[in-house]
Design brief:
mainly alpha; 5 helices
């Protein structure tokens, strides 16, 4: 949808100049200056979304994180395993 907006000449000139200085269109310049649109979600919708997300959540049975020792341990275990049981039955 498109709307027309009447601006005084001096405001329009300043808008065009500001947009030109940043290399964008006047409409994009205005859009950048306005607060971003934010969707408001009701508590009921949030609970329904959380329930849907929970259906796809898997527990690994242990805490995970970004600690290098745990990552290094997992990698060493996998690299040390020749996975023979997968190929020789």
């Amino acid at each position: 949808m498109s709307q027309k907006l009447e601006l005084p000449d001096e405001v329009y000139s300043a808008l065009v100049e500001a947009a030109k200085d940043t290399g964008i269109t006047p409409a994009d310049w205005i859009s950048e200056k306005l607060p971003k649109f934010r969707v408001v979600v009701s508590d009921e919708e949030r609970r329904a979304d959380d329930a849907r997300l929970e259906q796809h959540t898997v527990s690994l049975g242990y805490a995970t994180g970004i600690d290098n020792e745990s990552i290094e341990s997992d990698l060493a275990r996998e690299y040390g395993d020749d996975h023979r049981d997968l190929y020789h039955k």
